[in-house]
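Hey team,

Filing this mostly as a record. A colleague (T.K.) asked me to run one chain through the structure pipeline before their review meeting, and I want the input and output archived in the tracker in case anyone asks later how it was produced. No errors, nothing strange. Just documentation.

Input sequence:
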Amino acid sequence: MSNFTAPFLNIWSKIAQSFPQDCLLCGAACGNTRLCAACRASLPHHTASCCPRCALPTPDGHICGQCLKQPPAFDRTLAAFSYAFPADALVQALKYRHNLAAASVLAEPLAELARAQPRPDLLVPMPLHSSRLRERGFNQSIELTRIVAKTLDLPLAPDACERTRATAPQVSLPIDERAKNLRGAFAGRMDLTGKKVAILDDVMTTGATLNELARTLRRAGAAEISAWVVARA
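Output structure:
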């Protein structure tokens, strides 16, 4: 799949929206929406009682012990869903089956949550290395960020940072090796002095990738960094 695939998929997705739709999850007729009411109600919205820094569930909603011990390079995390069925199925449909209709189902709830957050100056999608981009044909984080940026009328900065090294997939590594795998994987390409930045990604697992990108944005001058993710594992 070429790097030009995503725009054509987006065009086809917009055309398809004008026709009666079947639910992306169960296949039931759902008019001009992408999920039926039952599947939409089953989405696992992320708990409000979570660490404000990394979004891991906590009993009291205070900063967790790990973030107190070793604060991440980002200031806060906003997660729309927990990474559980059926949100995980929608993420996988977008990421691996190129179903761009899933992007709006995932991104729109995140954008609505973000309305109540401190407003950033720009949105930075998680970069893909060029080799992974050629393999996949599109960057799912950019597709998600486009929707959030349009909904909130925020600038999108896809070239603020570049992934300079093709790293091993994080899911294939033990947790204690993930930070080392990402060291030096990003390079800043924009002066962000004094800017408030929100990084946008599909899934946050350990937070190692987001943390390394945030470290790079800090070096580029970013004054405040939020992590906005569709789902928190």
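Quick notes for T.K.: Residues 141 and 201 are 5 Å apart (CA to CA). The longest helix spans residues 101-114.
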